[in-house]
């Protein structure tokens, strides 16, 4: 998963790109970068590096990046390793035409495309799928960026939201299924596209609308032009439901649904379907908080802060080894003994993936004196891997892929365990039938071309 942003303005925008990226930091903390087009000397300049936005994009760097059009990227690796060569935006020159791209999503046919390009002599510098996009784009870019984007879209399959920097302006693209979000906003004479509406709010702009699935938007000199990938052609929209379950910020509005409202509703529905008699509701911060609020609202069981979160610990989820993930969870979350001692607890989290977080938390809550721990999850069991950009690992690592709810309960040591059903998840999403739920129901909108274990 990643976050992308693009700005087209009549003034220098590197600082704004920086703040915009800062507001997308939750979407990726491994690496980041920005690229700007300097129209005076017709060059694309960029700075990228491993680490957080505030560490990589220092004032000295921003001062050297002058331009009125630019793009930015924060990365959470899902295709290609966590390495400095895989930082984005990617940039290059072909037939004296400069291009830079930032990509969110995963292509499912990039291995095949890469092999074909390599056969032709293309020499790749990264191990990410996004480089395939840059090469196909540059190969067909003969002076009309929209034409070359359309040809590229004929080749690439899977999830992609893109921002592209070209001499013709800023281009924003959302794949025909709209797997990953992309929003268009305006601030005076300036246009902003971002993975989440929140960045547009924070930069002081107004959200105009979501970029449509299969839409290509070209922004130049304060003018926005919209193109369809193909005329009279529409795939059924399949935005990733996991954006709402976990990934997006609470204040993000994606395809008309606010992530916070969605999460509160999920908690409410869970409580409505529940009959547990407990003393307190405790969220797993931060992702479990809105769900716990909803559960509390519906059940009237008092909501308490029972876990203290260390704000300086980053993601524990994708640490390479199980023991690192375990110490990571302990460092991140510690029970408040005075709150949990002797209590029967409803513990709310947004999802169970491997089961690491819940197992450790339940164990530590018991050690802190909790009488009972009833775990409630505001999404269904994650049974299937995601090939479209969410880092849900190989099926063998997903605790729900081979275990029943009762087996999972035993494994993580809860007194009881309940998940939200897929129908209830739809209800929480206002019954909008526009979501990919493949991680929960195995119905992949495009057949993934991968070998499963
Ligand atoms: P588990 O510990 O079961 O493997 O993962 C579940 C926990 O990780 C939940 O607390 C959830 O909020 C969080 N989580 C779920 N999906 C992701 C993800 O893609 N990335 C990160 N960083 N955390 C996730
Ligand atoms: Mg969490």
Automatic annotation (TrEMBL):
Cofactor(s) listed: Mg(2+); [4Fe-4S] cluster
Alphabetical list of InterPro entries matching this protein: GATase_2_dom, Ntn_hydrolases_N, PRTase-like, PRTase_dom, PurF, PurF_N
Keywords of the record: 4Fe-4S, Glutamine amidotransferase, Glycosyltransferase, Iron, Iron-sulfur, Magnesium, Metal-binding, Purine biosynthesis, Transferase
Domain of life: Bacteria
Any GO molecular function: amidophosphoribosyltransferase activity
Binding site for Mg(2+): 287, 349-350
PROSITE patterns xref list: GATASE_TYPE_2
Segments forming domain Glutamine amidotransferase type-2: 2-222
Pathway participation: Purine metabolism; IMP biosynthesis via de novo pathway; N(1)-(5-phospho-D-ribosyl)glycinamide from 5-phospho-alpha-D-ribose 1-diphosphate: step 1/2
Claim: Metal-binding is one of the keywords in the record: yes
Catalytic residues, chain numbering: 2
Keyword Glycosyltransferase: yes
UniProt family annotation: In the C-terminal section; belongs to the purine/pyrimidine phosphoribosyltransferase family.
Protein name: Amidophosphoribosyltransferase
Organism for this UniProt entry: Tepidibacter hydrothermalis
Name of the gene this protein is made from: purF
């Amino acid at each position: 998963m990643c976050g992308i942003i693009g700005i087209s303005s009549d003034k220098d925008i590197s600082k704004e790109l920086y703040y915009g990226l800062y507001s997308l930091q939750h979407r990726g903390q491994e690496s980041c970068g920005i690229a700007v087009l300097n129209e005076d000397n017709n060059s694309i300049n960029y700075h990228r590096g491993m680490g957080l936005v505030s560490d990589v994009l220092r004032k000295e760097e921003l001062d050297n990046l002058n331009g009125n059009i630019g793009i930015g990227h924060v990365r959470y690796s899902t295709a290609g390793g966590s390495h400095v060569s895989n930082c984005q935006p990617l940039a290059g020159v072909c037939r004296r035409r400069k291009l830079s791209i930032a990509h969110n999503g995963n292509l499912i046919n990039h291995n095949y495309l890469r092999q074909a390009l390599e056969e032709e002599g293309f020499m790749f510098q990264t191990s990410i799928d996004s480089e395939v996009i840059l090469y196909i784009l540059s190969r067909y870019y003969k002076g009309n960026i929209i034409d070359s984007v359309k040809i590229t879209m004929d080749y690439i399959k899977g999830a992609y939201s893109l921002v592209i920097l070209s001499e013709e302006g800023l281009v924003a693209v959302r794949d025909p299924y709209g797997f990953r979000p992309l929003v268009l906003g305006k601030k005076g004479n300036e246009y902003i596209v971002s993975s989440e509406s929140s960045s547009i709010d924070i930069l002081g702009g107004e959200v105009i609308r979501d970029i449509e699935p299969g839409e290509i938007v070209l922004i130049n000199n304060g003018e926005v032009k919209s193109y369809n990938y193909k005329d009279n052609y529409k795939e059924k929209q399949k935005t990733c439901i996991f954006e709402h379950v976990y990934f997006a910020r609470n204040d993000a509005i994606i395809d008309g649904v606010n992530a916070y409202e969605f999460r509160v509703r999920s908690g409410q529905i869970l409580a409505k379907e529940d009959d547990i008699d407990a003393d307190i509701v405790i969220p797993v911060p931060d992702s479990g908080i809105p769900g716990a609020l909803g559960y509390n609202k519906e059940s009237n069981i008092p909501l308490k802060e029972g876990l203290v979160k260390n704000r300086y610990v980053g993601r524990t989820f994708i640490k390479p080894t199980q023991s690192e993930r375990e110490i990571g969870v302990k460092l991140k979350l510690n029970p408040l003994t005075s709150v949990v001692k002797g209590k029967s607890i409803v513990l709310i989290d947004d999802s169970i993936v491997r089961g690491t977080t819940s197992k450790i938390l339940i164990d530590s809550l018991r050690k802190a004196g909790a009488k009972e721990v009833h775990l409630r999850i505001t999404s269904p069991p994650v049974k299937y891997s995601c090939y479209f950009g969410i880092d849900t690992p190989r099926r063998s690592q997903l605790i729900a892929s081979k275990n029943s709810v009762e087996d999972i309960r035993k494994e993580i040591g809860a007194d009881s365990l309940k998940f939200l059903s897929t129908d209830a998840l739809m209800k929480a999403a206002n019954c909008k039938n526009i979501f990919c739920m493949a991680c929960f129901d195995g119905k992949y909108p495009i057949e993934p071309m991968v070998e499963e274990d």
